[in-house]
Write a structure and sequence with these properties.
single chain; about 90 residues; mainly alpha; 3 helices; elongated
Length: about 90
């Protein structure tokens, strides 16, 4: 955190992680993760909620480091707005 701006890095980190989670949600969806199986599926209920499960998986992946995209986004935003990097 930069002096004089308490908590200024938290919104940047939150935005970066949210962006990576959105990216991972799309990637997991296109990879077929969370798709309803052809046999022994959960029917309409599973179809309705599978996207929520995929989104949650993506959020957890992003929070745990994911692809490292959030780190790069956070560093870029910090540089753009003149904030010191956290280490």
């Amino acid at each position: 955190q930069q002096a004089g701006l308490p908590g200024a890095r938290d919104p940047l980190r939150d935005a970066a992680v949210a962006f990576e989670a959105a990216f991972l949600t799309e990637m997991l969806g296109h990879a077929g993760v969370g798709g309803t199986p052809d046999s022994f599926g959960g029917g309409a209920g599973e179809d309705a909620f599978s996207s929520l499960l995929t989104r949650e998986h993506a959020r957890l992946l992003a929070e745990k480091g994911g692809l490292g995209l959030a780190d790069a986004i956070e560093a870029s935003l910090a540089q753009r707005y003149g904030l010191a990097a956290t280490e």
